[in-house]
Amino acid sequence: MSVGQDTNQIILPDWMTEPAIRAPAQPSAGKLNFLRKTMEKISRVFENEFFCEKYAARPLFWQNIDTRVKIIISLLFLILSSLVSNPATLVILASIPLFYAKLSGLPMRIHFRRVWLYIPLVSFFLTLPAATNLFVQGKVLFYLFQPGFQGMKDGLYFTIPGLLASLRIMLRAGISISFCFLLLLTTRWSQITGALMSLRVPVLFVAILNMTYRYIFVLLLMANNRMEARFLRTVGKLKAADNRSFVGQTTAHLFIRSQDYADEVYDAMCCRGYSREPARTKPPHLQQTDILFIFSSILIILILAAGESVLHV
Fold first, then answer.
1. Is the pTM of this model over 0.85?
2. Over the stretch 2-48, which tens digit does the pLDDT of each residue have?
3. Do both 103 and 64 map to the same domain?
4. 74: closest CA among 179, 172, 175, 177?
5. Residue 90: which domain range?
6. Which residues on neighbouring strands pair with residue 11, listed in sequence order?
7. Do 63 and 181 have their domain in common?
8. Could you give the 3-state DSSP secondary structure of residue 62?
9. Which terminus of the chain, N or C, has fewer Cβ atoms within 10 Å?
10. Alpha-carbon gap, residue 304 to 88, rounded angstroms
């Protein structure tokens, strides 16, 4: 770049005035996109792990509660949600983990999207056919087909008891997922397994659970490496038959490698003195905040159980 002495104008080099050369178009769907999308899905699993660790490290409300207390209280709330049938009580129960998530610094938008926009909604829509008069009799909410349509004497309509039953299923599913999501997002996995052992859960169950959790990431990493290697070595178009063949071969390879890994890990554990009894650490004493949280949660459970007969729909 230079500046003219007479006109005081900036003169740009020729290469800066040339038209941009477009990059070659990416392969369309069905060619390489399935590899790219698969790698993105696998990467999101690892991102989710770091996402959980991010919030578990914050010294906020739910994070400061002892893990054993969190597990027991969550189980009590889940048992209560399975016993009560009043939708108003279930709505109150559904708001409790949302309140705890807010105090724990979890984004409400992410919590609501991950918990309530998938399994609870799907369960609600799947149970809608059972909310009709074909399965549950009761007061008419609205008609799908008027009486006399196609020879149906009473017609086809949604009943109030049927929709309330579908709503109960949706709320119970959402409450269960919400408490589990809250526990996993605010607690490290090592703390969860340590708390399970402190609660006298069978050691074999905890060991299998822990190994399964760890080696899910190992197998996903192996799958991602195969996908990247295939993506970097692929030129041109890919047929759908080739994609299916590659997926089948990858699945078989991961299955075989998982068996080999299991043998290698067990041999390495035995060489390091594994005696089928994991090392135990002395569980910490409950703090005052833990005891206060226990009493307050039990009080909430008793109030909701007592109000179940009052809040009648």
1. no
2. 444 445 555 656 655 555 454 444 444 444 566 666 666 666 655 56
3. yes
4. 179
5. 57-187
6. 2
7. yes
8. helix
9. N
10. 10
The structural domain count of the chain equals 2
CB-based contact 290:68 (threshold 8 Å): no
* Cα dist from 202 to 98, 122, 198, 220, whole Å: 31, 34, 10, 28
Distance from the Cα of residue 149 to its chain's centroid: 44
Q: How far apart, in whole angstroms, are the C-alpha atoms of residue 214 and residue 227? A: 21
Say if CB 105 and CB 55 are below 8 A apart: yes
pLDDT tens digits, 208-242: 888 777 777 777 777 777 777 777 777 667 677 77
Integer Cα distance of 79 and 188 in angstroms: 24
- pLDDT over 90 at 200, yes or no: no
Q: How far apart are the first and last CA of the chain?
A: 80
Residues 40 and 69 in one domain: no
| CA–CA separation, 264 and 303 (whole Å) | 53
